[in-house]
Amino acid sequence: xxxxxxxxxxxxxxxxxxxxxxxxxxxxxxxxxxxxxxxxxxxxxxxxxxxxxxxxxxxxxxxxxxxxxxxxxxxxxxxxxxxxxxxxxxxxxxxxxxxxxxxxxxxxxxxxxxxxxxxxxxxxxxxxxxxxxxxxxxxxxxxxxxxxxxxxxxxxxxxxxxxxxxxxxxxxxxxxxxxxxxxxxxxxxxxxxxxx
Length: 196
Prior knowledge:
Structural class: alpha+beta
Helix content: 10-25%
CATH class of the largest domain: Mainly Beta
CATH topology of the largest domain: Neuraminidase
Number of helices: 3
Shape: globular
Radius of gyration: 19 Å
Distance between the termini: 57 Å
CATH superfamily of the largest domain: TolB, C-terminal domain
């Protein structure tokens, strides 16, 4: 049995190197995790109305880039490659074997929301919104995509409440950021940015 597990782990490791972790089935992911001395304790595809039409047609779940967990609640920032989810899924993760989505915060039209940070003391979620043409919801007949940072009160994770939005520049870019009790320290295209 041990020899079989070693061969299986080597095969799975080779698959990860060749195709990336997204090519693995859930069982292959669990086997790969065991080979690296950790355990997958829960899993959910978080399928719902927030999925893109292409993801629903292909039977896919949400792909995520950044996540934070506090007090049994997970905050999952959707990723756009492949384009499955353009927003933030907030979920009860207190029981990893039975996680459930509680709410969803959509990205602004024409943006992706793959970076987020959570101030756990104040229960404020900050979401970076970066211009992205793959979002099926695009701005219509008006201003360009509104890139920037969205601020949300998540003291009730079932009903996140918008607090404000800092527009960096229309059709701009945001990237990684951090926050403390006073400031957001972010990377973004601003009106003052020098063109490349």
